[in-house]
Design a protein that fits this description.
This protein has 512 residues and is α/β, with parallel strands linked by helices. It is 38% helix and 10% strand. It folds into two domains: 336 residues, Histone deacetylase domain (Arginase, Chain A, 3-Layer(aba) Sandwich); 90 residues, no CATH class. It is globular. GO terms for molecular function: deacetylase activity; hydrolase activity.
Length: 512
């Protein structure tokens, strides 16, 4: 069985950058990549990964998805001056060219395909590719939304061709709808595409009617395109988890993919000026963990958006930690999804009822087209510009988010009690433990008498019983002091130890 998590990063992809002033494009900066990689190094995650070098995607690979005309335009920009680059860029919606953009985009494609090869060949069980420019908005014949080539779509076509895959799941948790990926696969039943995205009744970019919940695919692809539109900002951990529990995971297990690819945009995280959502970094650990249960663990995570550097970097780290097999941290915050999220989820389930067995007996008669069709939500202040409306312009708010994340991640990464497992048998039990072992010294008779003096007379005074009791109470004492979370004790007389430990825990008011 494959082991190890693959990480692919090439610093050259940071050379793609905006050369002129553009308030729409200025958030797509090279630091998105470099700061994420630096944070991975700070958490000592880079050294734990299997490193695979990026390569350039070939023209043949790019043409699996894109037209030759689109490829030729991209190639031609390598020798253009700034004025020419700006003129070509203006032909597209929210995109900019740099002389090195074509090279970076080919590296992004190649890195994605390298990850697919590593996972499918068994070099690694899963992995992440840190790439830019991103890809999920780009279409067959057009750059769009910071994206030149559709990295994930190319990867899906490549995997189908090279590894003869019949079922690929693409999960797009970027805050924008990946309309490029939808267009490419909307008639293809071999690719199940799921996207949640900020929509606000078609008010939010890319503002397409085909981004709504009732766009389920075309022809043979009906039922294989799942859009979950968020119709308000501020969606949090509970809303994201509800979307997974009540839409994505039931469909995914029925679909039974052979490979899972994530369009991993972190603009759906807290503090991001584009998404304006409230999901904290640890939710991405849980989402990743759920997806690792599919396709025998074959999971490829490809970076898309994410424009708050701190939020992006922490979320990338939480994703990689989970891929490596680290315990997922506790989810914080309100656990009930909001009404708007429930409405969107129910509408998606109703729209896909004809296509999936798990929804066959779903009662949708009570639903009243709560959809985006009614266009009930309007902008609160129509006199505000689109730029002002879509970005956090208050520097104080940004400082608050930075400070919150700093404190929040400390409590997530260094919880009290710490995530440690105590054991009194370092030789026989240590190999069962998934994390570092904190060895506990067994108590002697005097210590035991002190702890259980109130009912010590009930004990049979023999060495085996005292040894068992000492092992159990040593661990229990560590738990009560919040030095560890749990423990394993080797005991020749388990019944006595368990009984006494139970009485001890009641006496001390111990609660799990």
């Amino acid at each position: 069985m494959a082991s190890g998590t693959v990480l692919i990063y090439d610093e050259e992809m940071t050379t793609h950058k905006l050369l002129w002033s553009d308030p729409i494009c200025d958030i797509e900066v090279p630091e998105r990549l470099s700061s994420s990689y630096e944070q991975l190094k700070c958490y000592h995650l880079v050294e734990r990964c299997v490193h695979v070098p990026a390569r350039e995607g070939s023209e043949e690979e790019i043409l699996l998805v894109h037209s030759s005309e689109h490829l030729e335009v991209a190639k031609s920009t390598q020798t253009m001056n700034e004025e020419e680059l700006k003129r070509v860029s203006e032909n597209y919606d929210a995109f900019f060219f740099h002389p090195n953009t074509y090279r970076c985009a080919r590296l992004a494609v190649g890195a994605t395909l390298q990850l697919v090869d590593a996972v499918m060949s068994g070099k690694g069980r899963n992995g992440m590719a840190l790439v830019r420019p991103p890809g999920h908005h780009s279409q067959r014949n057009a750059a769009n939304g910071f994206c030149l080539f559709n990295n994930v779509a190319i990867a899906a076509e490549y995997a189908k061709l090279k590894y003869d895959l019949q079922r690929i799941l693409i999960v797009d948790w970027d805050v924008h709808h990946g309309q490029g990926t939808q267009y490419i696969f909307e008639e293809d039943p071999s690719v199940l595409y799921f996207s949640w995205h900020r929509y606000e009744h078609q008010e939010f970019w890319p503002s397409l009617k085909e981004s709504d919940y009732d766009a389920v695919g075309l022809g043979k692809g009906k039922g294989f395109n799942i859009n979950l539109p968020w119709n308000k900002v501020g969606m949090g951990n509970s809303d994201y988890l509800a979307a997974f529990f009540h839409v994505l995971l039931p469909v995914a297990f029925e679909f039974d993919p052979e490979l899972v690819i994530v369009s991993s945009g972190y603009d759906s995280g807290i503090g991001d000026p584009e998404g304006q959502m409230n999901a904290t970094p640890e939710v991405f650990a849980h989402l990743t963990h759920f997806l690792m249960q599919l396709a025998n663990g074959k999971l490829c995570v490809i970076l898309e958006g994410g424009y708050h550097l701190k939020s992006l970097a922490e979320s990338v780290c939480m994703t990689v930690k989970t891929l490596l097999g680290d315990p997922v941290p506790q989810i914080t915050g309100e656990m009930a999804p909001c009404r708007s999220a429930v409405e969107s989820i129910q509408n998606v389930r109703a729209a896909h009822k004809p296509y999936w067995k798990w929804l066959t007996y779903e009662d949708t008669s009570f639903l009243q087209n709560l959809s985006t069709k009614s266009n009930l939500l309007k902008k609160a202040n129509s006199n505000l510009s689109t730029e002002h409306d879509s970005k956090i312009t208050n520097s104080n708010e940004n400082v608050k988010v930075e400070r919150f994340l700093e404190l929040h991640m400390k409590s997530i990464l260094f919880p009290v009690p710490p995530i440690k497992t105590a054991t009194t048998d370092s030789t026989g039990l240590a190999h069962f433990l998934p994390v570092a072992v904190h060895l506990v010294k067994e108590m002697d008779k005097t210590e035991i008498k002190t702890l259980v003096s109130g009912f010590y007379v009930d004990l049979v005074e023999d060495d085996k019983t005292l040894l068992s009791l000492g092992s159990m109470l040593a661990i229990l004492d560590k738990i009560l002091k919040k030095e560890v979370r749990n423990g394993i004790a080797a005991s020749p007389t388990p019944a006595v130890s368990a009984a006494v430990a139970l009485r001890h825990s009641v006496r001390f008011g111990f609660q799990r």
